[in-house]
Amino acid sequence: MKVFIVNPVSGNGKGMKIWPQIRSYLEKRRISHEVFFTRFPGHACRLSTNAAKKEKVEAIVAVGGDGTIHEVANGLMGSPTPMGYIPAGSGNDFARYHQIPLHWEQALKRILQNRPQRVDTAMVADRKVINSLGVGYDGSVALAVNQSSWKKRLGKMIYLIKAIQVLLHYTPQTVYLNVDQQEYQFHRVWLVVVANISYFGGGMKICPNASDCDGKLDLCIVHGISRWRLLWMLPQVFSGSHVNHPAVHMIQGKQVVVDSDHPMVVQADGEILDHYPLAIKVLPMSLSIL
Ligand SMILES: Nc1ncnc2c1ncn2[C@@H]1O[C@H](COP(=O)(O)OP(=O)(O)OP(=O)(O)O)[C@@H](O)[C@H]1O
């Protein structure tokens, strides 16, 4: 049996909109399934933990955005049950990276092929991160978006508006990094991204070489640049060509500690974390995906 966990608010209601079509596809083909709808933030984690404990559950399928798969993957911590994914979010970075079709039917057909693949995740405190962590400016933008009452009405547009608003007021600061026991200090840091996959923020290739099957995390540090030059550089992140900019520093490692003089806001797969300083390590091949 396959268990579907549907986030009804993901992608401004897309999860709820596509579910009847998915259900009718499954019923027509007599594919055994059960469905649960998330009722509050964090619910998908609890639902997937409970589902994985049941007998005869061969896969848990998340229907939602990156926040939903983050929760479902966390609920599966330590369980060998594979996770399928039908994209219904706004950013869909995990789907983009794994070339999971954005249309529900193609994504479902891929799941039904039943070809599990093991991938790395990153561990921070008690959380599993599947895509990336963003610290500093990026975390502050995520926080501003999550707190905005306009999120529903403006959809993707809210990210651009908040990215500009936060940019106008954000104060860069000195950051201390420890990557595989090597110490680094960067001044006037705007953001540090610790990536497990190359895509971030809805299609930006922040760490073009990041791979979730190489046993490593990729870091991108943007520092020592004025706000206007940063704004000018942002479009380059969509192609990944920002890595050649002198204000960008790339590092790879297995264990990372991020600290600074003042705590910075952290987002993990789009969800705000309240742990700081951060100690992150890669967990090689720790999640099975379909
Ligand atoms: N019933 C619910 N009511 C309110 N929030 C919910 C509910 N169910 C889940 N959530 C929360 O919805 C948030 C957004 O989900 P998700 O990230 O999957 O969608 P998205 O933001 O549209 O997509 P993406 O992250 O790909 O841009 C998550 O933080 C999740 O915890």
From TrEMBL:
<keyword id="KW-1208">Phospholipid metabolism</keyword>
<keyword id="KW-0443">Lipid metabolism</keyword>
<dbReference type="GO" id="GO:0046872">
    <property type="term" value="F:metal ion binding"/>
</dbReference>
<dbReference type="InterPro" id="IPR045540">
    <property type="entry name" value="YegS/DAGK_C"/>
</dbReference>
<dbReference type="InterPro" id="IPR001206">
    <property type="entry name" value="Diacylglycerol_kinase_cat_dom"/>
</dbReference>
<dbReference type="InterPro" id="IPR005218">
    <property type="entry name" value="Diacylglycerol/lipid_kinase"/>
</dbReference>
<feature type="domain" description="DAGKc">
    <location>
        <begin position="1"/>
        <end position="128"/>
    </location>
</feature>
<keyword id="KW-0067">ATP-binding</keyword>
<keyword id="KW-0594">Phospholipid biosynthesis</keyword>
<dbReference type="InterPro" id="IPR017438">
    <property type="entry name" value="ATP-NAD_kinase_N"/>
</dbReference>
<dbReference type="Pfam" id="PF00781">
    <property type="entry name" value="DAGK_cat"/>
</dbReference>
<dbReference type="InterPro" id="IPR016064">
    <property type="entry name" value="NAD/diacylglycerol_kinase_sf"/>
</dbReference>
<dbReference type="GO" id="GO:0005524">
    <property type="term" value="F:ATP binding"/>
</dbReference>
<dbReference type="GO" id="GO:0016301">
    <property type="term" value="F:kinase activity"/>
</dbReference>
<dbReference type="InterPro" id="IPR050187">
    <property type="entry name" value="Lipid_Phosphate_FormReg"/>
</dbReference>
<keyword id="KW-0418">Kinase</keyword>
<protein>
    <submittedName>
        <fullName>Diacylglycerol kinase family lipid kinase</fullName>
    </submittedName>
</protein>
<keyword id="KW-0460">Magnesium</keyword>
<keyword id="KW-0808">Transferase</keyword>
<keyword id="KW-0444">Lipid biosynthesis</keyword>
<dbReference type="GO" id="GO:0005886">
    <property type="term" value="C:plasma membrane"/>
</dbReference>
<keyword id="KW-0479">Metal-binding</keyword>
<comment type="similarity">
    <text>Belongs to the diacylglycerol/lipid kinase family.</text>
</comment>
<dbReference type="GO" id="GO:0008654">
    <property type="term" value="P:phospholipid biosynthetic process"/>
</dbReference>
<keyword id="KW-0547">Nucleotide-binding</keyword>
<dbReference type="Pfam" id="PF19279">
    <property type="entry name" value="YegS_C"/>
</dbReference>
